[in-house]
Specification:
Organism: Lentzea sokolovensis
Oligomer: single chain
Protein name: DUF3040 domain-containing protein
Mean pLDDT: 83
InterPro entries: DUF3040 (IPR021401)
Helix content: over 70%
Radius of gyration: 20 Å
Structural class: mainly alpha
Low-confidence stretches: none
Number of strands: 0
Pfam families: DUF3040 (PF11239)
Shape: elongated
Keywords: Membrane, Transmembrane, Transmembrane helix
Length: 81
């Protein structure tokens, strides 16, 4: 947690960045588009079902892991700072 003084300093830096470099500030605040997550879910979820039906359980498990990873990242996005 940040102290109140650190929080005010951070807000001041963010305001200065927004004033000096608005394009950079918009790019940094942009969220990942939801269509990317939905397309990954459809592709890898569909592959999981298809590979399970044809009996390729190893690749199906890998696709299931990717699908689960996408769902986890959707719920708890990475915050790189």
């Amino acid at each position: 947690m940040l102290s109140e003084a650190e929080r005010r300093s951070l807000e001041e830096i963010e305001q200065r960045l927004l004033a000096d470099e608005p394009r950079l500030a918009r790019t940094m605040n942009r969220q990942v588009r939801p269509w990317l997550f939905y397309s990954l879910l459809v592709v890898f979820g569909g592959l999981t079902v298809l590979l399970t039906v044809i009996g390729a359980f190893g690749p199906a498990f890998q696709c299931l892991l990717v699908t689960a990873g996408v769902l986890v990242l959707r719920k708890y996005p990475l915050r790189l700072r």
